[in-house]
Amino acid sequence: MSMRFSTKARRGMVVLTTAAALALGVAGCGGGGGDDKKPESSASASKQNGSDPSAQEGQAGEPLAELRGSDGLLLQITSAQRDAGGFVTVNATLKNDGAKSVVVPAALSGNETEIVRNGRSLGGATLVDVKGKKRYYVLRDTDGRPLTTTGFSTIKTGESLSVFMQFPAPPTDASEVTFQLPTFASGTIQISG
């Protein structure tokens, strides 16, 4: 072995040992007396599906509307809540009441290029204020992604999926609106808040 190779190998071992000692030191300083508890769920995601709002968890009672879609799909709207930020959040359950697994129709995403480009969603949903003669489309973030549940494709028989959609809020005197989603029947819902 040459002297040069031995020196490089020794230097490498010293660097590796130092790095390992620093990593152990940092890891040892990171923990405390067990006070660092992680929350059981985040505010933006439910325990069942990644993009469900936490406000929908634990809701029970009669749905505001039940809308039938193609291939045995059923949408049960559980709440339509007006928020202080100037928008309305519609929470619902999408259920497969059919006899076989269903691929969720791509038509639910709507036909706007910006929304379709971001994958499967409920971006085709609208709220219609019949009195004010205005239609409200699903909100989008700054990257053009719809503010709805996304990333679903197939629902097995009897399975249900909690979903949400956010819209601009109609005027406060418009508490009754028509909810529309492609391939589903329309339904009238009450906005609370």
Automatic annotation (TrEMBL):
PROSITE patterns found in the cross-reference section: PROKAR_LIPOPROTEIN
Signal among keywords: yes
Annotated region described as Disordered, given as residue ranges: 30-61
Biased segments, Polar residues type: 41-57
Leader sequence segment: 1-23
Keywords (A to Z) from UniProt: Signal
Protein name: Secreted protein
Organism annotation: Streptomyces griseoloalbus
